[in-house]
Each structure stands twice: as structure tokens, then as C-alpha cells.
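User: Please predict the structure of the protein below. I'd like the answer in C-alpha cell form so I can feed it into my own downstream comparison script.

Assistant: Understood. Taking the following sequence of 110 residues as input:
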Amino acid sequence: MYELPFPEQSFDTITLDRVLSEAQLPAAVLKEAACLLRPAGRLMVIEDYDRLERAGAAAKQVPQRNALAMLRAWLQAAGLDCRRLRPVETGSQHLILAVGRLQGHLHAAA
């Protein structure tokens, strides 16, 4: 998940479904995904809010922030503009849905 066997700019869309809370280096996962996106590509993140917050606190990634702020900071550090970031209640889980686009390519595709 940190060094995937694909050339840079291989994908229009990448989806990460509950990966970051399991990763030792979640920011590095997002950087790798950003490298694999084509210009104007989208990264979609689905994450368990509670698990991500616990993982961030345990790793002391950004202890003063909640999971939403932590994810936004990681997306920005990976060179992605956070287009959407929202919590979603499913009844049994608290999820975060996020969409990021490569910075500088916001108007290239709708």
C-alpha cells in the first residue's frame, strides 16, 4: 500500500475503503495514491470515523485534532484538495466520506 506496482498517473479514480485506520503510515498511503492519479483524478476515501480517530491518537499523528481534521490534513499533505469531507451515520457505524483531487487540476474535469 506504500509502493504499489503501477506507473504514476495510472488511474482516473482510486477508492480507499477503510484502509487508513489500519495503516501504520496513513499519510504515506494517501501520498502513494495521489502519485497514481491522473491529472484531475479523484481519490475517494471511506473510513470508520471512530477507528481512524483511535488510530491517530494511538500513533500521536495529530493528537489535538478529530478524525475529520486529521484526514483533511493528510489529504492536503499528499497534494490533494479536499473537495468533500463529511461524516455519515449508518446506524451501526460512523463513517467519513471524502473526495480529494490533485491540487492545480480542480477545473480540468467536472
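That's the full C-alpha cell string. The CA atoms of residues 56 and 62 lie 6 Å apart.
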